[in-house]
Amino acid sequence: MISSMLNIFGGGGDNQNDNDKDNTVAKNFKASGSSKNGPTNQVIRKVNGIKQRRLGGSDIIVSELGLGTQRWVSSDFNAPNQEECYKFMDYAILKHGGVNLLDTAEQYPIPSDDRAAQEGDTERIIGQWIKDRKVPRDKVVIATKITGGRNVTPKNIVADCEGSLQRLQTDYIDVYQLHWPQRYSPQSNWGQSLAYNIDNDSNLYWRGMEGPTSFEDLCLSMEKLIQQGKIRGWGLCNDNAYGLTACTRTAKALGTTPPCTMQGDFSLLDRKSEENGVAEAASPYNENVGFLAYNALAGGMLTGKYLNVQAAVDDLDGNRERAKQSIQNPRGRMDTKGWGVTLYRYRTAAAQQAIREYQALLLSQQSKFRLKGGLTELSLRWCRQRSLITSTLVGHSNLQQLQDSIKYFSMAEPLPDELMWEIDRIHMKNRLPLFCSDRVGKDWNGSGEIGETIP
Questions:
Q1: DSSP alpha helices (H): ranges in 118-232?
Q2: Which of 3, 169, 175, 292 has its CA 20 to 30 A from that of 262?
Q3: Are 112 and 74 in contact, with CB atoms under 8 Å apart?
């Protein structure tokens, strides 16, 4: 009875064997004749253990581990400098060879101080490395982003792309993305807001001067860059199912190239993209769009480094002296005043409870599952197995962290079904821990931790 019901409702979902799932999707997709290239996430090859997958319906093939570069040469206390960034790319792309994806943005590094660290420096570092190492251009897939919001206009799409091309010292960009939507969207503020707010959408910032760039103008501008050979494909970031589908359907109606990717926050603590319509829309059976996951380690929370002593910002009330010591000798971003406030969503009471339960699961089943890398390994390998995810973008502060990531993504065996189910059981206790809060002030009047509109 139960097995027949599972068949009706789709059964075990993402707990299906990885290779079986890839083969089934590719076979069914081919039969449907949906795209000239193939289904998103199709495994094209494996290089030193790391799978390289099709991104959307494009011919762009990306490694399932990508190098996140947001903090490269930034003003952060532990940001990798140019020499360290070179070592990352040398090891991942040239020595190991399984990694080919670099994700950056014209706005990177973050944070920048307009002195030692300036916007655009991360692109410059990548471009200079390619030149210094004489790397064949087709050995690297470069994804970069135009600054979002009202900056996204037909004129700026062309101008900003040209700026990125110059800084990267290349003739073309593989994937050109909107850093956040060209229109109002509740999730583009990276806070805890999930609800659409019509008052925010009617704000003059969005509705003044003829309103936001239309989906038609967006698609036509991206197509112009494709036809000029300046980009191979384009995509979205920090958007939702509405934005994704509006872009793909508009492009198809216009006869232009649809977006091949969506990028978003995704981790054990943040599965919203699987459950809010994005995964359904992106499916190879629907819009056939890839997904690049960032913050898979939840700003460092899923490494377990804050389990015994909480982040400095949260420790100020209970143990002020210890909090000061953490600020003076930070373990990571959560111990800094800037990021510690901005990234509160990863430290809600619900999020921290989930982290403790994932850690307890590993400890109680240590002899059975044998994940020597602890929570970090669990979090990254779990991301790797989700059917939505094309590539997981991981930022690193040192070479050892990068080597560990590559080791986890090179493992042949997937996490066992039993462990995946135990993870799901924990998830079912609170499906949206990042968007919960037990400390909303009575006098906050509709504002969240970082001033975003809530709920």
A1: 121-132, 154-168, 198-201, 204-207, 215-227
A2: 169
A3: yes
The residue whose two tokens read 């943040």 is 270
Alpha-carbon distance of 336 to 77, in angstroms, equals 9
**pLDDT tens digits, residue range 380-438?**
999 999 999 999 999 999 999 999 999 999 999 999 999 999 999 999 999 999 999 99
Q: Strands 261-265 and 290-294, how do they pair?
A: parallel
DSSP 360-387: HHHHHTHHHH--TTHHHHHHHHHHHH-T
Number of alpha carbons in the 13 Å side-chain half-sphere of residue 24? 9
Q: Edge-to-edge, what's the strand order for the sheet holding 50-54? A: 43-47, 50-54, 61-63
Residue 5, token pair as written in the block: 């019901």
What's phi and psi for 436, nearest 5 deg? Answer: -105, 160
Task: Look at residue 171 and tell me whether its pLDDT is greater than 80.
Answer: yes
Burial level of 115, CB count in 10 A (0-12/13-18/19+)?
exposed
Distance CA 81, CA 3 (A): 54
